Amino acid sequence: MVKIAYFDACIETPEEILVAADITPIRLFGNPMIGIDEANEHIPPNHCVWARNILQQALKGLSQDIKGIIATHGCDCTNREFDIWLESVNLEFFYFLNAPLKRDNAALKFFMDDIKELIIQLEDKFNVNITTEKINRAIKEMNYIRDLLREISKYRERMILSSSIFHDLVKNVQQMEKDKAKEMLESKLNELKTTKSSLDKKMKKILLTGSVIDDTEFIKFLENLKYHIIIDDLCIGTKYFWNNVDETDDPIRALAKYHLNKPIYSTKFPSYERFKTLKTLAEQYNVDGIINIAQKFCEPVLYSHPYFSKKFRELGIPYLFVEMEYNRESYRQLTTRFEAFAEMI
Ligand code: SF4
What we know:
This protein is an alpha/beta fold. The protein has a domain at 3-131: Rossmann fold. It has helices at residues 15-20, 37-40, 49-60, 76-88, 105-126, 132-157, 163-175, 178-193, 216-224, 251-261, 271-284, 299-315, 328-333, 335-344; strands at 3-7, 24-27, 66-72, 93-97, 204-210, 227-232, 289-295, 319-324. A four-stranded parallel sheet has the order 2-1-3-4, sandwiched between helices. A four-stranded parallel sheet has the order 6-5-7-8, with helices on both faces. The mean pLDDT is 96. The protein binds iron/sulfur cluster. Iron/sulfur cluster is lined by residues 9, 48, 50-51, 74-75, 77-78, 211-212, 267, 295, 298-301.
């Protein structure tokens, strides 16, 4: 089966379109264990470390069965990096999906038109026919996967499932063929139904937010410091299964609406809209604190931080902001800060 990778900081790529084309969507993740010398030749030193890491992998060559890339509008880094991909990366298919920042009717029409253009280009390049029926079937399949993930997430909330295992599950779903993902999730859910909690109830319950956090080792690092991520607003997390696509509407409209109706992701503005979502989650899950992680030079998260810091202080909700490098050595260097926050809350 043909695979197409998507480079998307805020998870707004409509995977259903690829599934309907019998193409496997593969979300690109960073690899904190590699050097990034080739990427450094293309971009300035203050470019986000996560996006830089993905560029490095692309320059080195992605897996041979990946035939193309969809870059979906996220932040300025992802947008401009796509221009470098076009010039320097060897793939058969490139598409920039312009997911809009605004949420009004004009934005909806704009997004629908861009999804339609994606369909035309996929059909043309891969000689496939992406019919309404096939998209409707793919929407049902993805909604079922979202249902399963929401159900499994409840075991994380009840402290039966660890944050790192959950994180790893969501990552796998974003890279697997969806049939296999369904089987994996069904089996995990069955297992959880008879699992008793072995997690330490004294772990600090936190809401995790910030940049793309795709290294499960970082989540394990937090667990070792006695943090349990009871909830998040991340792309490898709740943003991937926040709600379902309307199965009764025209499928293109339903897909565009689904993505525009999700709470705004951390790569986008305004900060006060993001704050409202975080406040609601923090109160709903009665968290001990909020941890906001910025990958080094992640401008959108750096921009929101002073506002969040002020607002959470006013509410009396403990809040920790950390900017970090995209490598595992940097986690260890941050141990003292995380330990100090755990002691404080
Ligand atoms: S981590 Fe931040 S700067 Fe980097 S791609 Fe994501 S949103 Fe953009």
